[in-house]
Predict the structure.
Amino acid sequence: MNWKVPLTDVTVGEEEIQAATNVLRSGWLTQGERVAAFESAFAEALGVRHAVAVTNGTAALHLAYAVAGLGPEDEFIVPALTFAATMNAGIYLGARPVLADCASEDDLTISVEDVVRKITPKTRVIVPMAYGGFCPDLARLRDLARDLGIVLIEDAAHAPLARLDGRAVGSFGLAGCFSFFGNKNMTTGEGGLIVTDDEAVAGRLGRLRSHGMSSVAWDRHAKHAAGYDISALGYNYRLDEMRAAVGLEQLKKLPEATRRRSDAAALLRVGIERLGIEGLSVPFTHPRGESVHHIFAILLPEGTDRFHFRRELAADGVQTSMHYPLLHRFAYSREIFARGGSEGLPVAESIENRLVTLPMGPHLDRDKIDLVVKSVGRVLSDA
Ligand SMILES: Cc1ncc(COP(=O)(O)O)c(C=O)c1O
């Protein structure tokens, strides 16, 4: 389908092509100097001490949870409204997911009150996710976790460069996890990264991503090391040099791309609010901190046939999506939650069939925004 307004757009220019080509010509393709440069640049952009690049956002979460000591018998609290990977990475370690509700119909990030209700002596990790690039109540969650001796790990996949109270999203807990999947605000195709201010944690993350080895092939090639020991059971979650080179170029473009997203989000919000359709709402009317507008979610009026709505927008050339089915609604997870963990989610369950994601990205010019708004208005006024 040739969309007039695609949901997202990958904006890769000559700079990325040249950077990846240079790596391919250099003779060193696996984790080396480009990865180290990408890590330094990302850490600097966020104002954190350490960054560890990995193969994808799921691997980032898996390693962060492992370093937090999450394991069998433990519980970890995740939002009911997030991508499956936030939960899956903890299940890999044998831990039990417990779902927390959205804060409200306006603030779709995790409810701190519900997190408090769901903490038990077995809770080891709490994982806020910056839904759509919007900041959860990270300061309160950080204080809560600290007071109770629980580890805070951020799923910041939607939110590179988002900030709250002068700090980067991703920097409030022990570690923050990013994804550079193809539809993210910046992309390396596949890719991920963990930030932390803790040097020992960064060291462990760095070893775990490469089989638990004390040196990688690049260190031996560059004569920094002659051999290696393996200190712990690790994984192969290394990022390669081509992706790191692309990531460096994408990172340079991220501030401008974020400004464009922000402008587009403001226009789209005003356009939709001006339609004056009863029951139609755009969440995050009073966002915390600085959002980076990863996705643009709306809530349809109660009783709207969402499939009809999305089909009609598609007929106008407007691509839509749905972020996300709640974590306890999947065939595989229903079995997991049969033992509990998905109780008390009134807000998430009241919005799950009304959520629709409209197009968002630096590609949205005024004409595209007008088309989206007109299409939404046409379909809901006819309803
Ligand atoms: C909120 C969230 N968490 C985790 C991930 C996992 O990232 P990846 O696809 O890079 O493994 C994604 C994206 O896909 C995501 O949107």
